[in-house]
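Section: Multi-chain targets

For targets with more than one molecule, the full set of components is provided together so that the structure can be written out for the assembly as a whole rather than chain by chain. Components appear in the order listed by the source. The example entry contains two components.
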Amino acid sequence: MKKKIKILNTEFANFGSIKNILKKIGHEGVLIDNFDDVEDYEKIILPGVGNFENIMGILKKKNLIENTKRKILGKKNKFLCICVGMQILFNSSEESKVPGLSIFPDKLVKINNPIVRVPHQGWNFAVYNKNNTTLKNIFEKKFYFSHSFWLQNFNEEMILTNSSYGDSFVSSIITSNILATQFHPEKSHGQGCDLIKYFSDEF
Amino acid sequence: MNFKIQPRIIPILNLKDNALIKTKQFQEKIYLGDALNTVRVLNDLDVDELIILDIYCSKNKNKLNYPLIEKIASECFMPLTYGGGLKNIEEVKTLFSIGIEKMSFNSLIFENFDIFSKVCEKYGAQSVIASLDVKMQGGTHNIYCNNGTKKLDFSLKYIIEKLNNLGVGEILITDIEKEGMRCGYNFDLIKEVSSMTNLPIIINGGADSYDDFKKAFTYGATGLAASSLFTINKSFETLMINYPDVNEKEKMFK
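Its structure, encoded as tokens over all components, is:
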């Protein structure tokens, strides 16, 4: 069944790409400026391109910081948070003077290892070690990464995948209503398409 | 786990209006075929990334060809970079809204560094490619802009330091005289740039075989770009789209 998936308008993000992939899997992406018309149990994408401080600035300008937090913590809606969209779920980042949404207390740090080039740009494995067969198949292939900051440690239970680029880092997390990825599923060919399908239809 | 990830192998498509063209040393143009069809085939071949360059847009100060760019973006489920004629942040915003998330800048870097910096700041470094066109002359690599027609007085080192400090997403470096010639990359150029920066480097111009990719990777390039190699039948100079599959890539960089 065709669903309308809501995309939070953070102004500086790749809405076009996200709409394209939703269309490909038979759904429709609808840009929203606030949560007024969002029904319970509707799915919401927090897209991410750009910088942490900028996105927090936009949410502040639109008076959305508290509402976004409430929506996420209310657990009635499922969220897919991509790249910087994932990063702002945390308390802080070395990229930003302002705090994030602080859903989780952790801090993002700059990739800092002389043996790798920064940003981390390219296709890399997201290693999945749990039992869901759908996810296991999806994570057989590489995903596209493009970032300069990362999360190195996190609560094991909520880690969906780890990846490695000079050092190990958390490349995606999962809770009862959050699926968040450091990589870009909307730009990761068939496997990315499958992950967005999983979010839209099964998660 | 190995820390070195595979380099990206990146087709660059040169556009003129709605057509795909081949250039040699930024000059001679041969009409190859329909751009959109080529993009579709490359998407089906699971290319790592794709760069489209509308070189005439910059040269003739035209408006961006949004209808075509939008159609191309809707066929691309991998990272897609647009370059050509970008002058302001409004254009960047429009491109994001139609499905482009990486942009390649060339002349703007030299003509208005402030606007260029602002794009990096707003959209994050990872969305911005600084494209540098160079020619080897009298033992040094000189930088050119305006489609290779205007020689600049800055040294390569000076510009790359500026880009290091600003923090762009990556540097695309093209050897003008090798572009379209299929004579092998300028490996000295890769070595030189590689020693000047920790940013990802995409090399372009001259690739003729997978061996060139292998060699460029060992010299420090993390992106391996080519146009003719992926789109042209060498003997007949006609359109022939090809791209290495997963196994060929594994073999190349194991």
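The interface with chain B takes residues 12-17, 19-21, 23-24, 49-51, 54, 84, 113-125, 144, 146-148, 164-166, 168, 184, 186-190, 192-193 of chain A (CB under 8 Å).
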